[in-house]
């Protein structure tokens, strides 16, 4: 497992570990917590390659003596088999009473009598340490709540305990369940791009010959990677030139599906992949492509799936719907570039062989990405280097492993904004486009409001956005500012009002009222209050979200929205949660003002 965790896996010590006499009880306890959580993560990965990818659960039970001796272990071999916690409890027997159970991830089932939760409770476990909460929203927090309700002490790493060793243990837990985390966060399977290249960056000679670039040891590692995947993807060019089998050949029982992406179905009638006697093959293609060839493939037992447009993201969405957790891409440079550009590649494994082949027309691992400057280059994170025979394996993430803890707003701020929210056990409701389920929360929704003007006379505005943009120019003596307000009042849509207001603010900043940056949150707040008190059904919709974190899902607005990766300030979501709390009659006890504004062009 060391290669999976990038060297984070800690060798398990079978004998008791004594804490230093100078260490505090907390330091010793957290040291044991980190060690045994890492061990649980290591255990959870033991079935990799032998079963289909599934959520990885491991459990270690230790008695809280001077050395925290391990008395039981277990791991979930496959979905539907005995839970890790049940195995560990059975192994520990009577020694469970008063012991501590270490789980790399919160259990996903707490209902049946033989479940993980009931096993720990009945065994007399007194404390449970959890590496990470379950990433699936409908399961998140359920087991933790069930254990705590039975009187067990439950500590979640990073929430109840935190230090450097704890951070390393959390990372182990995140990495071992990276496929599940990416699936939960991105609604696509965890996608890994694998390729082998020469030292001068070629994946084949100019003639197309490519056997073999990497060593036998490296190819054995590739078999292991395939075994960790639900499916292996190649493009049509790979089928035509290499005629691969894409088998595992590692001795395990799990055989990933082979998937071919081909827009035109310009594929050979005979190929190893069309033999589906042992492993299924799926061909994804453009709708209507070569119907006669589709019939030929179907006659061989190959499944053909048509897409209106054969795009990697649509294919990944389809595989997500099929329940896949992890996909390995072993394609050529053209398809690799398309997959990277579509944002579906999360991790890269590059085998670099100490060979030079040269060739002006020799292919490279990744085709055209449209980048013209080195500053545009994609940088891997959490990079690991491993020597495999004569080759070097370079591994790293293109996208960080998702941390699904709701931090929009931050944990510290959540309860202050809306006391009804439990920051770790609440759901997150995203809203962005007005046609979304909660699109009526948007300031762009077409709900007219009446707001007083400078003379305290009510003026009707077509939407909150119309009013908000116009307020930028209120009180400015320049006649042009007044005409801007009238132009905004007549804007045909909220989008048009936004374009007009932003354009004027950008091109003629002298027309913007000088105090705008310090009052714009209050302007938006008053407009939202008017909207949600004017329309009873909007009021009811907002109240129906009680206990949930509201996030404006704009990927580009980092002030009012949550941003693409949760880096936004989400002020619109904050204001709605504050308004919701007021509507519930539960005024916040800490009347903290919202954070200072930025000078974003909003």
What is the element layout, followed by pairings?
Blueprint: H1 25-44, E1 58-63, E2 69-75, H2 84-92, E3 100-105, H3 116-123, E4 127-132, H4 142-149, E5 153-156, H5 164-176, H6 178-186, E6 190-198, H7 216-227, E7 231-235, H8 236-242, E8 257-261, E9 281-286, H9 291-299, E10 303-307, H10 312-321, E11 326-329, H11 333-341, E12 347-353, E13 381-388, E14 391-397, H12 411-417, E15 428-431, E16 449-452, E17 458-461, H13 464-470, H14 479-489, H15 494-507, H16 516-534, H17 536-543, E18 549-552, H18 571-583
Parallel strand pairs: 3-4, 4-5, 6-11, 6-12, 7-8, 7-11, 8-9, 9-10, 15-18
Antiparallel strand pairs: 1-2, 1-3, 12-14, 13-14, 16-17
Helix pairs in contact: 1-5, 2-3, 13-14, 13-15, 14-15, 16-17, 16-18
Please name the defining characteristics of this protein:
602 residues, alpha/beta, five-stranded mixed beta sheet, 32% helix, disordered C terminus, Riboflavin_Biosynth_HTPR
Description of the molecule:
The structure is a single chain. The chain has 602 residues and is of the alpha/beta class. It contains 18 helices and 18 strands. The chain has helices at residues 25-44, 84-92, 116-123, 142-149, 164-176, 178-186, 216-227, 236-242, 291-299, 312-321, 333-341, 411-417, 464-470, 479-489, 494-507, 516-534, 536-543, 571-583, and strands at 58-63, 69-75, 100-105, 127-132, 153-156, 190-198, 231-235, 257-261, 281-286, 303-307, 326-329, 347-353, 381-388, 391-397, 428-431, 449-452, 458-461, 549-552. The strands form four sheets. The chain has a nine-stranded mixed sheet with strand order 10-9-8-7-11-6-12-14-13. β16 and β17 (458-461) form a beta hairpin. α2 packs parallel to α3, α13 (464-470) runs parallel beside α15 and α14 (479-489) packs antiparallel against α15 (494-507). It is globular, with a radius of gyration of 28 Å. The two termini are 48 Å apart. The model is unreliable at 1-26 and 586-600 (pLDDT under 50).
């Amino acid at each position: 497992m060391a290669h999976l965790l990038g060297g984070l896996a800690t060798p398990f010590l079978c004998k008791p570990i004594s804490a230093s006499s100078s260490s505090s009880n907390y330091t010793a306890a957290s040291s044991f917590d980190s060690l045994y959580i890492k061990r649980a993560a290591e255990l959870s990965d033991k079935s990799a390659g032998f079963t289909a990818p599934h959520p990885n659960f491991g459990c270690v039970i230790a008695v809280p003596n001077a050395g925290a001796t391990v008395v039981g272990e277990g791991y979930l071999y496959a979905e539907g088999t005995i839970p890790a916690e049940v195995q560990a409890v059975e192994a520990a027997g009577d020694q469970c009473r008063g012991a501590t159970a270490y789980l790399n991830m919160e259990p996903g089932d707490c209902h049946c009598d033989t479940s993980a939760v009931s096993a720990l409770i009945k065994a007399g476990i007194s404390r449970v340490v959890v590496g990470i909460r379950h990433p699936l929203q409908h399961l998140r927090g359920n087991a933790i709540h069930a254990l705590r309700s039975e009187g067990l002490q439950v500590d979640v790493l990073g929430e109840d305990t935190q230090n450097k060793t704890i951070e390393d243990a959390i990372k182990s837990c995140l990495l071992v369940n990276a496929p599940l985390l990416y699936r939960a966060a991105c609604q696509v399977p965890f996608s890994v791009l694998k390729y082998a290249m020469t030292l001068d960056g070629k994946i084949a000679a100019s003639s197309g010959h490519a056997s073999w670039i990497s060593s036998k040891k490296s190819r054995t590692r590739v078999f292991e990677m395939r075994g960790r995947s639900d499916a292996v993807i190649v493009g049509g060019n790979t089928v035509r030139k290499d005629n691969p089998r894409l088998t595992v050949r590692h001795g395990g029982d799990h055989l990933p599906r082979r998937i071919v992406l081909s827009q035109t179905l310009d594929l050979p009638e005979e190929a190893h992949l069309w033999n589906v006697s042992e492993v299924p093959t799926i061909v994804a293609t453009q709708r209507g492509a070569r119907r006669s060839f589709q019939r030929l493939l179907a006659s061989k037992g190959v499944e053909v799936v048509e897409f209106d447009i054969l795009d990697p993201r649509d294919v990944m969405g389809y595989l997500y719907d099929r329940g896949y957790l992890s996909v390995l891409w072993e394609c050529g440079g053209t398809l690799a570039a398309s997959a990277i550009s579509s944002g579906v590649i999360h991790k890269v494994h590059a085998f670099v062989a100490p060979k030079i082949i040269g060739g002006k027309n020799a292919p490279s691992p990744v085709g055209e990405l449209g980048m013209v400057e080195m500053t545009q280059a994609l940088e891997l994170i959490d990079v690991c280097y491993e020597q495999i025979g004569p080759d070097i394996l370079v591994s790293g993430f293109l996208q960080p492993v998702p941390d699904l803890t709701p931090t929009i707003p931050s944990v510290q701020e959540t309860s202050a904004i809306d006391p009804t929210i439990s920051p770790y056990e609440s759901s997150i409701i995203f809203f962005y486009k007005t046609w979304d389920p909660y699109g009526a929360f948007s300031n762009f929704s077409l709900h007219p409001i009446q707001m007083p003007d400078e003379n305290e006379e009510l003026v009707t505005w077509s939407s909150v956005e119309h009013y908000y943009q116009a307020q930028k120019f209120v009180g400015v003596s320049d006649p042009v500012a007044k005409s801007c307000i009238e132009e905004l009042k007549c804007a045909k849509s909220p989008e048009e009002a936004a374009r007009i207001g932003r354009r004027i603010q950008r091109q003629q900043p002298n027309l913007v009222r000088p105090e705008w940056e310090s009052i714009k949150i209050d302007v938006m707040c008053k407009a939202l209050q008017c909207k949600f008190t004017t329309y009873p059904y909007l009021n009811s919709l907002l109240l129906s979200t009680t206990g949930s974190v509201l996030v404006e899902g704009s990927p580009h607005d980092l002030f009012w929205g949550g941003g693409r990766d949760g880096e936004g300030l989400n002020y619109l979501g904050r204001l709605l949660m504050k308004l919701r709390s007021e509507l519930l009659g539960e005024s916040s006890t800490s009347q903290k003002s919202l954070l200072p504004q930025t000078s974003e062009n909003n």
